[in-house]
């Protein structure tokens, strides 16, 4: 069989590409080195619960076309991400909003909260003497002031990044919204949810009728001879590996998970609890059932599955999760991108091949807009 496309990787990039190719009447073979399809959105069913094996995945987008596309394949539920922070046993709503301000300071109105935040920021703003914040610590202190910084940001960030907040770039914290309304929704996007029945259903719908092979490593089976079986290669694996690491290895940030079953129907009452103090070694605890079971239905399933997340320094062989955007890695990635642009009939796509962090919706949007 000769295919129009050999697609390396069955994550959202590869699977969406295969879907479009099939719709266009093209033939394709999708291979993945893992024993399952779906890349990082894959879920393992444990005790009737879809466990997000490669980290919690919440779909959110402002793009109606992307939302309509995924919902045409599998309907999405009403999950809304509302993480809670635990600081030495005190609970605070995230992102920083009127609920958080009321919990921290007992304020009741937006005006009271603004006055309090102005007081909290004053010292940091004065210290800057009009210049821009130079690091995450300065940025956070100027944005929300000292109470929030010391209780909800500093130690969490240092656990997550393994570095002092003074040595981290300011832009990391700009992503965290600050709101003077009682709204715990972590995202500002118009659409948000989890596929009903889990992400595997979305992947199954994308790959329906497509030939797939798991436990098949491109470098062992097809690297030297793929042109004999396909016209074009869609490569979604790591870009440095494709070029045999000839300029050196790209670095990644990774997370390790300790997952266990708890013999209770409701362990923490929320999908995501962030532990914002140093004395707890993990950053977050995920209770997976809350992504798909709401209200009383949580109790229909007698057990629960929780995962502690530990931020870990990446070593070769670990999961490659987040690109590291420092000077060395940006330069290295550019060198590989230059080589990639010279490969004939090969498209490098997705977070590993582009060495770029993408949320799920932008990946789908990108593939929907590719010329076939
Ligand atoms: P992947 O899903 O990684 O797929 C690549 C596939 O290629 C893998 O299956 C891999 O096995 C395969 N492969 C690699 N090399 C080879 C080879 N040599 N031979 C064969 N197969 C190979 N996005 C959100 O929108 N919301 C979230 O809440 C969210 N949470 C996230 C949490 C974490 C911890 C991480 C890391 C990401 C998160 N994302 C989230 C982003 C989301 O995971 C990505 O957008 C999406 O997975 C990208 O899909 P992809 O196809 O590019 O990559
Ligand atoms: N952050 C924090 N406290 C929290 C949650 C987040 O200080 O309880 C900071 C932290 O520095 C993190 C950044 O905000 O790196 C962005 O967090 P987000 O959850 O948006 O991103 P992710 O962790 O998914 O990269």
List keywords for this structure.
single chain, 372 residues, alpha/beta, Rossmann fold, 7-stranded mixed beta sheet, 5-stranded parallel beta sheet, 13 helices, 16 strands, 33% helix, 20% strand, globular, binds flavin-adenine dinucleotide, binds uridine-5'-diphosphate
Walk me through what this model shows.
The protein is of the alpha/beta class. The chain folds into two domains: 3-79 and 191-251 and 320-368, Rossmann fold (3-Layer(aba) Sandwich); 84-174, no CATH class. The chain is built from 13 helices and 16 strands. The two termini are 20 Å apart. The model has no long low-confidence stretch (mean pLDDT 96). The structure holds flavin-adenine dinucleotide and uridine-5'-diphosphate. Uridine-5'-diphosphate is lined by residues 85, 94, 152-153, 156-157, 160, 172-173, 175-176, 274, 276. Flavin-adenine dinucleotide binds next to helix 1, helix 9 and helix 13.
The gyration radius over C-alpha positions equals: 22 Å
> Roughly what is the average pLDDT, rounded to an integer?
96
Major sheet characteristics:
7 strands, mixed
Small molecules in complex: flavin-adenine dinucleotide, uridine-5'-diphosphate
Roughly what fraction of the amino acids lie in strands? 15-25%
CATH level 4 superfamily of the largest domain? NAD(P)-binding Rossmann-like Domain
State the CATH class of the largest domain. Answer: Alpha Beta
CATH architecture of the largest domain: 3-Layer(aba) Sandwich
Number of E-type strands: 16
What would the principal axes of the Cα set say about the shape? globular
CATH topology of the largest domain: Rossmann fold
């Amino acid at each position: 069989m000769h295919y129009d496309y050999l697609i390396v990787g069955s994550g959202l990039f590869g699977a969406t590409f295969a879907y479009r190719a099939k719709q266009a009447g093209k033939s394709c073979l999708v291979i993945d080195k893992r024993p399952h399809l779906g890349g990082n959105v894959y879920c393992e069913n444990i005790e009737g619960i879809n466990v997000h094996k490669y980290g919690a995945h919440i779909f959110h987008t402002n793009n109606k076309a992307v939302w309509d596309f995924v919902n045409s394949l599998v309907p999405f539920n009403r999950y809304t991400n509302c993480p809670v922070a635990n600081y030495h046993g005190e609970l605070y709503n995230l992102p920083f909003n009127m609920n958080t301000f009321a919990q921290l300071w007992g304020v009741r109105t937006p005006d009271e909260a603004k006055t309090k935040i102005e007081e909290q920021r004053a010292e940091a703003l004065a210290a800057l003497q009009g210049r821009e914040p130079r690091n995450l610590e300065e940025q956070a202190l100027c944005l929300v002031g000292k109470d929030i910084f010391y209780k909800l940001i500093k130690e969490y960030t240092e656990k997550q990044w393994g570095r002092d907040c003074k040595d981290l770039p300011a832009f990391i914290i700009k992503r965290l919204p600050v709101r003077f309304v009682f709204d715990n929704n972590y995202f500002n996007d118009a659409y948000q949810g989890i596929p009903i029945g889990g992400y595997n259903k979305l992947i199954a719908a994308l790959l329906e009728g497509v030939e797939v092979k798991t436990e098949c490593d491109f470098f062992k089976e097809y690297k030297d001879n793929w042109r004999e079986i396909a016209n074009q290669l869609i490569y979604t694996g790591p870009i440095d590996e494709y070029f045999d690491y000839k300029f050196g290895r790209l670095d990644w940030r990774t997370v390790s998970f300790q997952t266990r079953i708890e013999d209770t129907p409701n362990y923490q009452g929320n999908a995501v609890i962030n532990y914002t103090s140093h004395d707890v070694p993990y950053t977050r605890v995920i209770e997976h059932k809350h992504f798909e079971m709401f209200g009383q239905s949580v109790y229909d399933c007698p057990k629960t599955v929780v995962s502690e997340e530990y931020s870990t320094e990446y070593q070769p062989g670990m999961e490659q999760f987040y690109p590291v955007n420092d000077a060395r890695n940006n330069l290295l990635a550019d060198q590989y991108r230059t080589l990639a642009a010279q490969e004939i009939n090969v498209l490098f796509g997705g977070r590993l091949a582009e060495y770029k962090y993408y949320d799920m919706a932008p990946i789908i949007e990108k593939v929907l807009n590719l010329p076939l």
